[in-house]
Amino acid sequence: MKAAAILPKISYRFQWVWYRNLVVWSKFYKSSLVANIVEPLIYLFGFGYGLGQFITNLNGMSYVQFIAPGLVSISAMNSATFECTYGAYARMTVQKTFDAMISTPVNIDEVVTGEILFATTKAFGASIIMISIMALFGLVPSWTAVLVPLVMLLTGFVFASAAILYTSFSHSWDFFSYYFTLVIAPLSLLSGAFFPLERLPGWVTQLIWFTPLFHSVELSRGLVMGEMHWKMLEHALWLILFACGVFLFAVYRIRNRVIV
After folding, report:
1. What is the pLDDT of residue 198?
2. Residue 6 in domain
């Protein structure tokens, strides 16, 4: 496979794909916010203030303080994933929106890029709302939490790219139940968002290190708590490398599915 065949051909026109999705989303944004934000809030109140009554100290913080930063990452992941699975699949196969867009000067690589960046924008917005709610409940002790939405931009881009990559292999709506059950759910539970990972077997923690949500949770918790350290650069660098690789593969896969 030649490198030129993998590298995307992208110009400024991807912004029109992003804008088109924004206009459509503005028609039903309320229902979208319920799906992407209310669920993490249920976890925050159910686990944090419910189960948290029985866990008074976890790594030097209350349980609700421990899980809150991780729920920001989970919210960003869910927002980007739903948009680039069900949403992208509908536009690609049912509504034939992709076909309509590439009949204009916009090419398929720009369509995929616009789709991913719109999902990233939704993840960014969801993270800002989550951080604001956390601040209202006194769960943001450090000013460095203002950097969390930047981490969620990267998190959203990673999971939007991964989701649209999976969508490129999907041939019915049923395929997404496998993705959410076998990928998204385990990532949520084993990301370090709900409990420390140190008590798991060593080989499990080594595998978890390679998952993107783990790095997002570590960055989010460190910034919220004001615990800045050099290892955060390692988390950020890994997310960037993972994002680049998955994005390139996703563009290549959608290009072959739609064009070939």
Report:
1. 86
2. no
Buried b (16+ CB within 10 A) or exposed e, 199-233: eeeeeeeeebeebbbbbbbbbbbbbbbeeeeeebe
**Cα–Cα distance measured from residue 17 to residue 11, given in angstroms and rounded to the nearest whole number:** 12
Question: What gap in Å lies between CA 167 and CA 88, rounded to an integer?
Answer: 7
CB neighbourhood size of 42 (10 A): 11
The domain of 107 spans 11-259
Give the residue among 82, 72, 70 at the shortest CA–CA distance from 35: 82
CA distance linking residue 121 with residue 128, whole number of Å: 11
Instruction: Give the model's pLDDT for residue 251.
Output: 94
The CA distances from residue 259 to 98, 99, 163, 210, 233, in Å, are 10, 9, 19, 32, 39
- In this predicted model, what pLDDT tens digit does every residue of 211-224 receive, in sequence order? 999 999 999 999 99
Closest Cα to residue 169, out of 238, 260, 85, 51?
Answer: 85
φ/ψ bin of 96: left (φ > 0), alpha (ψ from -120 to 50), beta (otherwise): left
Q: How far apart are CA 170 and CA 173, in angstroms?
A: 8
- pLDDT > 90: what percent of the chain? 62
In a domain, 223, yes or no: yes
Total-model pTM = 0.92
Domain count for the chain, please give it: 1
